[in-house]
Amino acid sequence: MKPPESPETAQNIEDLLRRMTLEEKVGQTLQYNGADDDALEQLHNNHVGSFLHVMGEKLEALKEAAGKTRLGIPLLFGIDAIRGHGLWRNATLFPTQMALSCSWNPDLLEEVARITAREVRATGPQWTFSPQLDICRDIRWGRMGETFGEDPRLTGALAAAMVRGYQGSNLADEEAIAACPKHFIGYGETVGARDGTEADVTRRTLEMVFLPPFRQAVHEAGAATVMAAYNAVDGTLCSLHHELLTGVLRDQWGFDGFVVSDWDNVGRAVYQKQVCTSIREAGVKALRAGNDMAMSTKNLAGELVAAVTAGELAEDVLDQAVRRILRIKFRLGLFDQPARRGIDREKIRTVINCPAHRAASLEASRQSLVLMTNHGILPLAPERLRSIAVLGPNADDLFGTVGGWVIGSPQAEFPDAMHDRDHIVTVLDGIKARFASATVVHERACCVVDQRHAISGWFTQRQPGETTTPPEGGMERATELARSADVAVVVVGDTMALQGEANDRADMDISGGQMELLHAVKATGTPMIVVLLVGKPHTIGWIKENADAVVCGWNQGVEGGTAIAELLAGDFNPSGRLTQSWPVSIGQQPVHYNQAPGWHAPRYVDQAIEPLFPFGHGLSYTTFNCGDATADRTTLTGDESVTIAAEVANTGSREGTVIVQCYAAVHAPLVRPARELLQWQRVHLNAGECRRVDFIIKRDDFTFVDETGKRVPANGKAEVWVGLSSRTRDLNGTIVQLAG
Ligand code: BGC
Fold it and tell me: 0.85 cut: is pTM over it?
């Protein structure tokens, strides 16, 4: 939670404000790219108060230079440490948010964020542009893998946990950093899943889907900053949106931190969106709307000074933005002596990628894996296997293993090509280590991208190490290896050129030569396990039908290959559950579980409407059964709660964890989702054990969003279900009457 402002801090901020020149105030509202050559010049000439994407000696030089300026106001350094400190060489990488969300485990996310904060702060930055709270229902969007999936409640809970982990109980702690929930708002719902276009959302949809996770991260967990999104809502760019940035964030939720724009979004208002005719106009409108800091917009400093001088921008408005930014600098303890000292190299050495952090990353990987199908082949028995063919372009590929926001990814801007090879355990590495008594052979066989992909997207063109030329004879060799092995593990998926920012796709089939490889391996008759290393769901109907087992490995952290090999060997029992529905085909989009009912036909003419894998799906090496749901009262009034209970049994032969899910639907005069996730619990059960699982639901939790966009209590009948996925046949329901 954010600490109450001490009178002393408030006083310090006002003292500083009084002493600042107009130019110095404007400088505080600017953030520049520290990777640019003119960073020091920007500090001296424009008094820039924050830099992003700068570390190491350059960060130290900037920090020292800021200390010697007239008022010595410390710099705030921001970094995209979004799945561990991925842009720092050989830091602890964790699985992506999409992967971690499959744990449904806020405690795990809090721990991931705490470790990230420790590594980040040790290296200098004090602020991360994380967590990502976009909800996306169209798998073509390049950035879906950065999200927590399609459900607002789950997203909100995991996001709040990450904010707590980053910020700790005191932002000034030397192992805490400021969080920045992003992108406010609707960025995941843009037209055609094309990055940064219009988000055509209604006021009700904002309140039903997009705002609640931010409310949790900001209002409940006390996030220090928020990033405004690239897109527009109802025609107004998010960075210029007064109603959202001031009306909702500040007035409704009491947010007292600051808002930063996304990359040059103030400039984009002019040259891309053409809603302002000059940088000056855009800068003024952004500040007036409540966007306090502009990220990477060049030439804004002089324009804002001129705007205040000409009376186009009230100095009060500028002061308010500066006050909010200084407040966070004070809260982070940046004005205190220890924070002003240089970087502690010994601390970096002991903290970055230390054994405890790697162990935590391994545990995070285990919880992120989803066993999608298993026709009895898994777990493998390592002692009985003589040979394993590990095939496919992602089996031993660092970029395919980890995905985006790491050194070497297009957004990174750092000179290193990638983390060290031995820093990351690929699936091949993991299998070789875990199945040491078997002969493990490998062939890459084909490429993930093909000619079509090579010509698309500006990030794609910068993609290092990606090739569209398959290894000569690779397919034949792979087929031979599969034929003579006891089992083939085929590791396919996507790579950074096919996902991430500005890398939206029009189809989501498994690409390049990978399907050909799968068909060839299948034809050999050798049992085939498919491991998917993907940023986000794909259309995998053939794979589901034809593989003996499918494991979704997502994009992993440093120990991903270890966790996947352990899963194959049955060393732990998988418990991950999908947080995003997987469609049968791309034409079935969107297929999220929490849609409104009311379609005139129960299916497409040429396809079912049920997804291939629903939200909440995931298998285990044991079996679970969820009994009938019962309510301890039939009518609920005032501030009462109802306990919905179900007996959950482990009906198999080994212990395991199951994620028990509780959904509800209310009666209301407006159309609303047919089912919404209310609560969930991770329950560990021994073989044969049966336990009653209680969900305590308050009267206030039964709500709907009215025509003005306000969440109000529902009345009348409410249906509540408990079960093991969002699919109707996996749920048992009961009825509660909501009164008064
Ligand atoms: C992305 C943000 C990121 C920022 C800084 C933008 O392009 O949309 O998510 O935090 O760049 O790197």
Answer: yes
